[in-house]
Structure formats: structure tokens, C-alpha cells
Write a structure and sequence with these properties.
Layout: H1 2-24, H2 49-55, E1 59-64, H3 66-71, H4 73-82, E2 85-88, H5 94-97, H6 107-118, E3 122-129, H7 136-139, H8 145-162, E4 169-174, H9 187-191, H10 195-207, E5 212-217, H11 225-239, E6 246-249, E7 252-254, H12 261-273, E8 277-286, H13 295-314, E9 319-324, H14 354-364
Parallel strand pairs: 1-2, 1-9, 2-3, 3-4, 4-5, 5-6, 6-8, 7-8, 8-9
Helix pairs in contact: 1-6, 8-10, 12-13, 13-14
């Protein structure tokens, strides 16, 4: 098991060198107002989260939304300074990239890729197959099985081929199971059948044999019916040489409801025994689930959840990345549900919160 996981980790780490070379070869233009990664101002002498992670050969990342990225220099600076992994939050989803059957729109995704190369940031591609963010031409099309397979294969291979050698990790299939372990009743499952998951992995691997391919889902970090089903799928895939390399744990959690480190450990170890990596891919920690807590109490509880999760991850060699679903509280999608929500490591001015310090302290151990 150790040699399999070690080999996968080595594949992932090579992308730091590749993105650095892309920048040196003049493939990108420096962003105005953004300091080089790791550069600190006179007031910022403490090591950043990114610097601490890189000392360990580990990845800390954030989902990056193109709208604030394109308009807010402080947002771009925060990404470059604090993170060495980037996930496009929306701009690589099917609807954004492939809005019409015969038309792709790569502009925003390409700009995020250029920024990542300039700042030596590894990219997680998200996501090739999902039941949401689909254009009408897919959802409302009258497809038979072979027709929809052709649509899906063409989409996957066009996108993956475009970024071959540039994207380290792909979330190939996202959220294919319900919480009870049954298949989600989406268009891919209805028309193609459950084999669409395996086919997606095989097609992605054909397009870029060096990319690491992940299945990504929520409420699958502990030991549950759903995580058992995902484990069984992964075990079956590994036994039949279906090219799957890891499982993504989204971890959209609350301070009052999250997986225990012991349950995470069990799941990490059984996936590691299959030779699979795990990455925490979309973490945020809602603090307003307990209305009785004071603001300081909420930040303390949030810090404890983040720190405990990262500590559990770092104890197992096959846990290779820790990504939050957003850069800072200013632009989190959760504000659409609660304008006072503050789920991330950086505040609305992109200043480190207690949770940021807590995860930095874990990385120092």
C-alpha cells in the first residue's frame, strides 16, 4: 500500500515544478498588484499557511470564483499568498465550458490557469460529470444511450485534453450517490446507466494518463452507508484496473455537526489500503448553527473543527490536500443563505482568522 500511495503523491508533487516552468517560459502575464507567492510585507513576518504547507510537501487550497478574481486585487493577492492549490469554483463546470453543443468557452478557465502557473499554484479541475450546472441542450435533449455516451465522452476528452499536463487532479465524477448509498437519479444514470461513472474515469485517463482522477462527494468523510458505498465502488474499480486514484471529501460542515477524527481515520486507512489518496476538497465550517454562542465562541469552535480535521488528515500518508470552498468570508456562497455566515479561514478583509492560525499551528507540529 505504501509504495502505491507514495507513487501517486510523487506524481502530484511534480506539478509544482511544471507550473513553475510554465511561468519561466513566458506563458503567462503577471497580475497587477499581486506580489510573488510567499512574499510578505514588513508587517507580515509570520510564515503563511502556504509556506508551512510547502515545508511539509502538502497542499492547502481554495476554490476560486472568477467574478471576484477578475475584479478584486486583494482577492487575487490572498490566493497567491496563502494557497498552493486552486480549484475553479464554477468555471470548469459543464455549463460554463460547454454552453452549446458545438461551442466551448474556455476564456475564464484559461485565465485562472494562467494565474496559477504564474504563482506556482497546483490546480484541481472541478468537475467533469455532475448532475447540476448542466446546459439546457444536455438536460432537455432527447438522447438514447449511445448518443449521450458520445456527448459525455466528447466533453470529457475535449476539456481534459486542453489542460493535459497542466491540471494535476480532476474531480471526474461529483455526487453520484444519495446518502443511503443508492445511485442519484440524474440524466447520466437514467440514460446511460451506472456504468457512466466507470466510463468517465476511463475517458479522462485516455485524455491525460498522468492526471490523478478523483471521485468527489459530501458527507462521505466518516463511516456511513454512503462512504461504504463509495468504498465498495472504489474497491471494485481498483480490482478491475479502472483508473481511479483518489476520493474527495467535500466537508461542508457545521461547528455542531462534523465527522469525528476517529471515523475519518478509519475511512482514510481503508482507502489507503486500496492505494487511494484522499483530499479534503471543499471544506467550510458554518458558525451560525448555534445562535446562543458569542462571536468569540463561534470562532473558537470553528478553529477547533478546522484544526481537528487537518490533524486527522495529516496523520495518514494518503491524505494529500486540504482545500476550502472559497478564499475568504467576503465572497462565500453561504452568504446567499445567511449574510452573517463566516465559514472560511480568512475574514472579509482577507485577514487570517483564529481558524487560519489553528491550521497553521497544526502544520507546524
Amino acid at each position: 500500500m505504501g509504495s502505491k500511495v507514495g507513487g501517486i503523491c510523487l506524481m502530484l508533487l511534480t506539478f509544482v515544478a511544471l507550473t513553475s516552468c510554465a511561468s519561466a517560459n513566458g506563458g503567462t502575464v503577471k497580475e497587477e498588484g499581486v506580489q510573488p507567492a510567499g512574499a510578505a510585507s514588513d508587517q507580515e513576518t509570520a510564515p503563511t499557511l502556504r509556506q508551512m504547507a510547502e515545508k511539509r510537501g502538502f497542499y492547502v487550497g481554495a476554490a476560486v470564483n472568477y467574478d471576484p478574481f477578475s475584479k478584486d486585487a486583494a482577492y487575487r493577492q490572498a490566493v497567491a499568498e496563502h494557497f498552493n492549490m486552486l480549484t475553479p469554483e464554477n468555471d470548469m463546470k459543464f455549463m460554463r465550458l460547454h454552453p452549446e453543443k458545438d461551442r466551448y468557452t474556455f476564456d475564464n478557465a484559461d485565465k485562472l490557469m494562467a494565474f496559477a502557473a504564474e504563482h506556482r499554484i497546483t490546480v484541481r479541475g472541478h468537475t467533469l460529470v455532475w448532475h447540476r450546472s448542466l446546459p439546457k441542450w444536455v438536460e432537455e435533449g432527447q438522447w438514447d444511450k449511445e448518443q449521450l455516451k458520445a456527448v459525455l465522452k466528447e466533453h470529457i476528452q475535449t476539456v481534459v485534453s486542453r489542460y493535459k499536463g497542466k491540471i494535476a487532479v480532476w474531480d471526474v465524477v461529483n455526487e453520484a450517490f444519495n446518502d443511503d448509498g443508492s445511485y442519484r437519479d440524474n440524466i447520466w444514470h437514467k440514460v446511460i446507466g451506472p456504468e457512466y461513472i466507470e466510463l468517465a474515469f476511463r475517458w479522462a485517463h485516455e485524455a491525460d494518463p498522468d492526471a490523478l482522477l478523483y471521485y468527489n462527494d459530501y458527507t462521505n468523510e466518516g463511516m456511513s452507508v454512503k462512504s461504504n458505498r463509495i468504498y465498495e465502488m472504489a474497491r471494485d474499480f481498483r480490482s478491475r484496473q479502472v483508473p481511479i486514484h483518489g476520493i474527495g471529501w467535500q466537508m461542508h460542515v457545521r461547528t455542531m455537526n462534523y465527522a469525528s477524527p476517529d471515523k475519518m481515520k478509519q475511512n482514510l486507512q481503508r482507502l489507503g489500503a486500496l492505494g487511494l489518496q484522499v483530499q479534503i476538497t471543499e471544506m467550510d465550517v458554518k458558525v451560525n448553527d448555534n445562535k446562543d454562542n458569542t462571536p468569540d465562541d463561534k470562532m473558537k469552535r470553528q478553529a477547533d473543527v478546522y484544526a481537528g480535521t487537518l490533524a486527522a488528515c495529516l496523520k495518514e500518508a494518503n491524505c494529500t490536500a486540504f482545500v476550502t470552498w472559497g478564499v475568504g468570508d467576503k465572497y462565500t456562497y453561504l452568504k446567499e443563505q445567511d449574510p452573517k455566515e463566516r465559514p472560511l479561514l480568512l475574514d472579509e478583509q482577507f485577514r487570517p482568522k483564529p481558524a487560519y492560525q489553528a491550521v497553521t499551528d497544526v502544520l507546524k507540529r
